[in-house]
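Researcher: Predict the fold of SDR family oxidoreductase.
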Amino acid sequence: MDLQLRGRTALVTGSSAGIGYAIAEGFAREGAKVVVNGRDAERLGQARERLLAAVPGAEVTGVVADVGTAEGAAAVIEAAPEVDVLVNNVSSFELRPFAEISDEEWERYFRTNVLSGVRLSRHHLDRMLARNSGRILFVSSDAAVDMAVEMLHYSVTKTATLALARGLAELTKGTRVTVNAVLPGPTVTEGVAGMLDGASAQTGLTRDELEARFFAENRPTSLIQRFATPDEVANLVLYLASPLAAITNGAAVRAEGGVVRSVL
Ligand SMILES: NC(=O)c1ccc[n+]([C@@H]2O[C@H](COP(=O)([O-])OP(=O)(O)OC[C@H]3O[C@@H](n4cnc5c(N)ncnc54)[C@H](OP(=O)(O)O)[C@@H]3O)[C@@H](O)[C@H]2O)c1
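Model: Structure tokens for SDR family oxidoreductase follow.
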């Protein structure tokens, strides 16, 4: 299927690794120009090389910036002032008991997970509306609707992104601009793969056995009973970013393998 993204420009925050990288590479494979972002210059440079090796000739621009800060968001806007697609993918997440999450940590999570998307959308939405064309996507989480009590600050900010996406979509009424959110579930990014390898070395269990145990004990409601790959999540984001998804607006679309026991 041709997603009709050729020649379009897509900005993906937090894209030197994980789901963000898979989304960026997916855009490049579809012939889109892509702007990748991360805080660490070396990691971002490596991601750019990896992307160019995967998609020779791809047009890839890298912006080193922490989008959780006003300066970082401004730097990203300056590097890519006009985009057809904005993917607010970046997120902080870490297990932390509720009682131990300080005010500073709550504020940092809001800055990185919510305010980054607010700042970039504030710049890009008006331009998209003026052009009557564009896509804004928020990468949220199953934890937005199934509260993850082991990292409540993460869960709450992920719920906020759903509200933000829906609210921004309301501002697109009668136009060809759409704003949607995607809810990934457990996904085997480089970080998760490394954790599985470490646990495998410690326990003597294979990665497959560890995965089966994780889903049986920690995610029993998952219908796929396995981790998604970043590419599988990226596929949905790419579709929603494409002109083919013109009638999906203001939606929270799940890519979580059925973990959330809900008909909607
Ligand atoms: N993985 C999962 O199982 C899962 C499940 C549900 C939802 N999600 C969601 O999917 C999205 C991506 O998650 P992921 O697991 O792919 O993340 P990841 O593997 O940890 O990758 C995070 C990427 O973001 C960059 N980054 C982090 N903080 C940044 C900041 N403040 N400014 C700019 N770049 C930043 C990192 O590079 P630097 O460190 O160099 O900045 C890296 O490139 C997140 O929104 C997450 O909530 C993931």
